[in-house]
Design goal:
Layout (H helix, E strand, L loop, with lengths): L1 H45 L3 E6 L4 E4 L1 H7 L8 H4 L2 E3 L11 H5 L4 E10 L9 E13 L5 E10 L1 H22 L3 H16 L3 E8 L4 E9 L6 H9 L7 H9 L3 E3 L11 H6 L4 E9 L2 E10 L7 H86 L1
Antiparallel strand pairs: 1-2, 1-6, 3-4, 4-5, 5-6, 7-8, 7-11, 9-10, 10-11
Length: about 400
């Protein structure tokens, strides 16, 4: 009896001691967990990058405030690809779409340039495009098992824009320096601006007085861009002032930006553009003083947010192109006048030479005639004198 009671007592003491020990062990760990959670919340709230945590199934379980602002909707327990349809950039990409599953397979993503495009329907009636740097890595538990992944998206829109503006300025300056004629410069300008901005299609328009409208004089697009219907419409459509992008630029005499041509009410080529995947557009006039020499427009397969600084720069470039064209036209006119003068001089010289040869020939013929007449006359005189002398002698 006593032995049994002692055993129970001892057991209760041991259990109490174990509970105290467990409590003392768990409490610090609980405090560490709370501290870690607070730290994570602080980092997520203050980070200017978009940070997204996904579970092993690729579902979003936590995001930073910046990520919430970019996604513009509740992301919790949604697939990452649904909330953030990221597309990889760069040549040689076999698949342009980023997938969380690739992170779990061991693929490394560190500072990869990507784009994130949202349609108006998916982003509060606003078309949005983000240029981002993406980094992604798996999350592991203390046993080193993968339990999810962390994805970081850094907005580089402004730095990309600045870089592209510099590229455009350098490329157009180089083209203007290397070109020898106004006709030669336009295709090069279209190509250099498209390539510098990473846009897809460019066209140059001139005003035709006979039809009182703008005609397409030149187009350029990437070899990988197949837009036959849109290109055909561009080449064969005449736009009166105020109609379409070229006509609007001509009427307003300033650059214009269209975020999405499909939703623009003054873009007659919208069906063809939408069908062949062209979305963003902008254009600017080529001016010489107050005279519009032409209109240049560009198109992108990506919805592009307005870039006022780029438009201002393009307005300046349009003036430089206009000055170049006028200067080259003046040089060409001077060369033509010089060539015409040389031709006239050659023709007149040839005529004078021919006239001189003809005159010399006539003089020579006349001289021979006079010599012959003189010889005949002398012969007659001699004959007459001889006759008279004979008659006197008789």
């Amino acid at each position: 009896m006593n032995k049994r009671d002692k055993t129970k007592k001892d057991t209760r003491v041991e259990n109490k001691a174990l509970r105290v020990q467990l409590k003392e062990t768990v409490q610090p760990r609980g405090e560490e967990f709370v501290t870690a959670e607070c730290l994570v919340h602080s980092v997520m709230d203050q980070s200017t990058d978009a940070i997204v945590l996904c579970d092993i199934n690729g579902l979003i379980v936590r995001t930073s405030k910046t990520a919430l602002a970019i996604g513009n909707r509740d992301p919790l327990f949604q697939p990452f690809e649904t909330i953030f349809p990221v597309q990889l950039k760069g040549e040689g990409q076999s698949d342009t779409h980023f997938r969380v599953a690739d992170v779990f397979r061991g693929k490394i993503f560190r500072g990869i340039e990507v784009s994130l495009n949202y349609s108006a329907a998916a982003h509060g009636n606003n078309n949005k495009t983000f240029n981002l740097l993406l980094s992604a890595s798996p999350l592991r538990n203390p046993q080193d098992a993968v339990v999810g992944c962390i994805i970081t998206l850094t907005d580089i829109n402004e730095s990309v824009r600045v870089k592209r503006r510099k590229n455009v300025l350098y490329a157009t300056t180089q083209v203007l320096a290397d070109s020898s004629t106004g006709k030669e410069v336009i295709p090069k300008i279209l190509q250099s601006i498209c390539e510098s901005l990473e846009w897809d299609f460019g066209a140059f328009w001139t005003f035709d007085m006979k039809v009182n409208g703008l005609r397409c004089a030149e187009v350029w697009h990437k070899s990988s861009v197949k837009v036959p219907e849109f290109e055909s419409l561009t080449r064969n459509t005449i736009f009166p002032p105020g109609v379409g992008l070229p006509g609007s630029i001509y009427a307003k005499r300033k650059p214009i930006w269209i975020t999405s041509v499909a939703s623009d009410t003054n873009f007659p080529r919208a069906p063809a553009a939408a069908k062949e995947g062209l979305q963003g557009a902008f254009g600017f006039p080529v001016l010489m003083g107050n005279t519009i020499l032409g209109i240049i427009e560009f198109f992108s397969r990506v919805i592009q947010p307005p870039d006022e600084d780029l438009l201002k720069m393009m307005a300046s470039i349009g003036g430089q192109i206009g000055q170049f064209i006028k200067r080259k036209e003046a040089e060409e006119a001077l060369l033509r006048a010089h060539a015409e003068l040389e031709q006239q001089l050659k023709e007149r010289t040839a005529a004078l030479v021919q006239a001189n040869e003809s005159l010399e020939k006539r003089i020579e013929e006349r001289t021979r005639e006079l010599v012959k007449i003189n010889e005949e006359l002398q012969a007659k005189i001699v004959s007459t004198a001889g006759t008279r002398m004979n008659s006197g002698a008789e």
